[in-house]
Known about the structure:
Blueprint: E1 4-7, E2 12-15, E3 23-28, H1 39-57, E4 61-66, H2 84-92, H3 96-113, H4 129-141, E5 145-148, E6 151-154, H5 170-176, E7 191-196, E8 204-206, E9 209-214, H6 216-228, E10 232-238, H7 242-257, E11 262-268, E12 271-273, H8 288-293, H9 298-306, E13 314-316, H10 318-342, H11 355-370, H12 375-390, H13 396-413, H14 419-441, H15 445-457, E14 460-465, E15 468-473
Parallel strand pairs: 3-4, 3-10, 10-11, 12-13
Antiparallel strand pairs: 1-2, 5-6, 6-7, 7-9, 8-9, 14-15
Bound molecules: adenosine monophosphate (AMP) and zinc ion.
Amino acid sequence: xxxxxxxxxxxxxxxxxxxxxxxxRMYNCGPTVYGRAHIGxxxxxxxxxxxxxxxxxxxxxxxxxxxxxxxxxxxxxxEEGEDKIExxxxxxxxxxxxxxxAHEAQFHEDLAALGVRKASVYPRATDHIExxxxxxxxxxxxxxxxxxxxNVYFDVSRFERYGKLSGNRVEDLDAGARIEVNEEKRHPxxxxxxxxDAAHLMKWxxxxxxxxxxxxxxxxxxxxxxxxxxxxxxxxxxxDNVFPHHECxxxxxxxxxxxxxxxxxxxxxFLQVDGGKMSKSLGNVYTVQDVVDHGYEPRALxxxxxxxxxxQPLNFTWGIMEDSKKALDGLDRLYEKLTAVAAGExxxxxxxxxxxxxxxxxxxxxxxxxxxxxxxxxxxxxxxLRGEVNEDRxxxxxxxxxxxxLDEVNDVLGVIRTEREAGEDDAEIDALIAARKQARAxxxxxxxxxxxxxxxxRGILVEDGAxxxxxxxx
Length: 474
Ligand code: AMP
Ligand code: ZN
């Protein structure tokens, strides 16, 4: 059986077939850079990383695009109201451009700490204003959009498939509209492609007049088109993106091109904390830093966020983090034990012992991952094999094969500390320590603090003593 994906469009599992043989064009909705990503956001980014790694494991050449929303995403995903980045800028008395750039850098650091592979491109919305305007102009030209006093709206009544992803119907949206009536709109469900607001801080002069800025949905349509073309294989996001964001993207992109936009839509369920919504008032909107401050390595967070199925709600607790830490210790020990058995120390003595156990675990892991990325099923295969290894049922050759298998698993899950990985890590950390020493010698305190923070985020404790600087893992 090949790879099956649960497609939110149509709400069923489907065999994955790429548009072009051997290639996958994938777009992931990325962060709105107004604050540090919380572990809920990270769940959806890690899901994208897992999907990309699994596709690569299957041999596909993946072009992965994850956008940076640095303008136009209004508070609570509403049609009216403040821009999230500008609201943050006002709260902190800073320039919105600075807020956006600082949090973009932070986002990359967090992803690196979690072992996320770099996407092919991370396009910023503010670098694609021209591409958005081009699409908007064409949508007006084709009669799908209309302009009123510097604002441009998409006319949902013109796109008959509106609602095909979310199941929302224009009539119902009309009846249930909580949106205060905007006199400019022909229909309450029409959404803004371009807005005009003299008070907005990040703004552009265009053919629609001065002081304009893009709607959040057109950003993703334009960036997907620029980097992947009109027709893409997979589009992902968190479950809250289904409506209005992705529904609106479909309307814009398909009206523009006249053909289909994304073949598969995949959505990660929300992460909950302590059984409820994360909220600032409860003080449980955690970041990578909070997790590190609690004494856990970032990879334990990676494991926690990946170990459930992405379509099941996941409940984050410190108890789960503790459990993840133990599970990872168990996988590290498994790797060590297999390394020893493969080198002839311990294990079963009969020739060929345990070969079929490794083959079975591999098959079951593949079947689990091919089943819409069913990680719990894949992990069960690995922990099952661990039981067999601990019972000394594997001989030398089977242990060597099992090590290859764990390397393959780790290439997908990225959580086990294999010797190879530990070696690579150590070399990187030594390089950071040396860079920090140089920064201190140059009295470049800002740089030396930055490096110390980076080491901290990687779970490394630096100790400056009389005999020089040493480091160890927390
Ligand atoms: P934002 O930075 O608000 O644009 O969100 C970035 C991504 O994180 C989007 O794809 C959201 O759907 C996703 N997201 C936000 N909150 C959660 C959560 N609690 N669990 C999972 N994904 C989330
Ligand atoms: Zn998006």
